[in-house]
């Protein structure tokens, strides 16, 4: 092996000492870099946990292909078991991004067309407003003004079909954004059925294994219950998500920070995946509707980047989350972008979650906690951490 020309004339001992010094400096730089990230995360997360009385939280960060995990507190107040990156959390509506991925996957497999009408796949809805509501509308919260939750009176699939068949919207499909669990839940049901599986089977036997997510579930097996964090509501009472009609499809995933961060990386094309699945992930980032402050993709929401925190928070106000927002269709749909901030929040009665990533920078974050607390603070913390890490790179 030839020595570098600049080293060729140096005595061997000098070369050894210089090389050792260089490696020492590199190692020191990496240590400082890791310490700086820890400081940024601590400064953002510790006050958050204190303010909202959060028992446990874990933050996962991906930066240029390297992962960092930071754990705080306990997964159960009763047992005092520490949170780790392998603790199972409910991720609430972040589950919807898997539902959208499954629908794209089914389309690529030739099982459905997202431009088809909903009633084409659900005969019970023939002759209803779902004759004019496409699967894309189901995936973008643009069906009309369905309620956010499936009504309590709906306890089985037959009652669901009856409710949806008689539902009378106030808006035409594709004109307003109304965040609703029934619409994405219906899409998940259709996608799974097109693959001849239940939704649980479609995720646990098809999607999760292909994604390399080995600790993700709809139904947590008994062998993993010890890893399942106890959730706490705003009154600090222990709770876990209740089963219900379309609950699995809309907010039923339980996963770890390790698996969810792996999913974020897969969304940034950072893992070798079979083409059908990678394409399915990529297509969830297609922009279908201009909501004003943001672009509505298939469940994911994106903002042009760089962006101020205030503008991201505009997409997470009570009015946007719970109200009806006029939208403009993007024709043709906007192809997946790189210089964007892509995010999704998720909540159940006792858990809160957030995922965000910037494809152009291969930079992303997941925040998981076992207490339900407001959305704006978790979005703020995610923004503070990612932009703080950005500054370290400059």
UniProtKB/TrEMBL annotation:
Coiled-coil portions: none
PANTHER family: BETA-LACTAMASE-RELATED, D-ALANYL-D-ALANINE-CARBOXYPEPTIDASE/ENDOPEPTIDASE AMPH
Pfam families: Beta-lactamase
Organism (species): Shewanella vaxholmensis
Signal peptide: 1-29
SUPFAM superfamilies referenced in this protein's UniProt entry, alphabetically: beta-lactamase/transpeptidase-like
Keywords for the protein's UniProt record, in alphabetical order: Antibiotic resistance, Hydrolase, Signal
Family that this chain belongs to: Belongs to the class-C beta-lactamase family.
Enzyme Commission number(s) of this protein: 3.5.2.6
InterPro entries assigned to the protein according to its UniProt record, in alphabetical order: AmpC (IPR058136), AmpC-like (IPR050491), Beta-lactam-related (IPR001466), Beta-lactam/transpept-like (IPR012338), Beta-lactam_class-C_AS (IPR001586)
Domain (Beta-lactamase-related): residue spans on this chain: 41-384
An annotated Gene Ontology molecular function: beta-lactamase activity
Catalyzed reaction equations: a beta-lactam + H2O = a substituted beta-amino acid
UniProt name for this protein: Beta-lactamase
């Amino acid at each position: 092996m030839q020595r570098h020309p600049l080293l060729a004339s140096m005595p061997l001992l000098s070369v050894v000492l210089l090389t050792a010094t260089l490696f020492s400096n590199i190692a020191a730089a990496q240590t400082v870099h890791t310490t700086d990230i820890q400081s940024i995360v601590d400064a953002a997360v510790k006050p958050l946990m204190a303010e909202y009385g959060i028992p446990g939280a874990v933050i996962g960060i991906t930066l240029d292909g390297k992962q960092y995990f930071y754990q705080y507190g306990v997964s159960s107040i009763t047992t005092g078991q520490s949170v780790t990156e392998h603790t199972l959390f409910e991720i609430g509506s972040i589950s919807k991004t898997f539902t959208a991925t499954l629908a794209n996957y089914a389309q690529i497999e030739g099982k459905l067309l997202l431009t088809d009408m909903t009633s084409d796949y659900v005969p019970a809805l023939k002759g209803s407003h779902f004759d004019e509501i496409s699967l894309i509308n189901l995936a973008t919260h643009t069906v009309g003004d369905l309620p956010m939750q499936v009504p309590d009176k709906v306890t089985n699939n037959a009652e669901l079909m009856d409710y949806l068949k008689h539902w009378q919207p106030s808006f035409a499909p594709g004109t307003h954004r109304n965040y609703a669990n029934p619409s994405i839940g219906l899409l998940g049901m259709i996608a799974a059925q097109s693959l001849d599986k239940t939704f649980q089977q479609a995720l646990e036997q098809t999607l999760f294994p292909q994604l390399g997510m080995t600790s993700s579930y709809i139904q947590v097996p008994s062998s993993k219950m010890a890893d399942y964090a106890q959730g706490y509501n705003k009154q600090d009472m222990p709770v876990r998500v209740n089963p219900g009609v379309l609950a699995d499809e809309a907010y039923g995933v339980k996963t770890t920070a390790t698996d969810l961060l792996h999913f974020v990386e897969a969304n940034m094309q950072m893992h070798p995946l079979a083409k059908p699945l990678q394409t399915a992930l990529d297509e969830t980032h297609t922009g279908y509707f201009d909501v004003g402050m943001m672009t509505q993709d298939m469940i994911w929401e994106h903002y042009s980047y760089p962006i101020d925190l205030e503008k991201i928070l505009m997409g997470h106000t009570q009015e946007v989350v719970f109200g009806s927002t006029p939208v403009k269709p993007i024709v043709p749909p906007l192809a997946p972008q790189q210089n964007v901030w892509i995010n999704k929040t998720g909540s159940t009665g006792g858990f809160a979650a957030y995922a965000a990533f910037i494809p152009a920078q291969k930079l992303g974050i997941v925040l998981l906690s076992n207490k339900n607390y407001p959305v704006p603070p978790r979005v703020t913390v995610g923004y503070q951490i990612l932009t703080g890490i950005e500054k370290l790179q400059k």
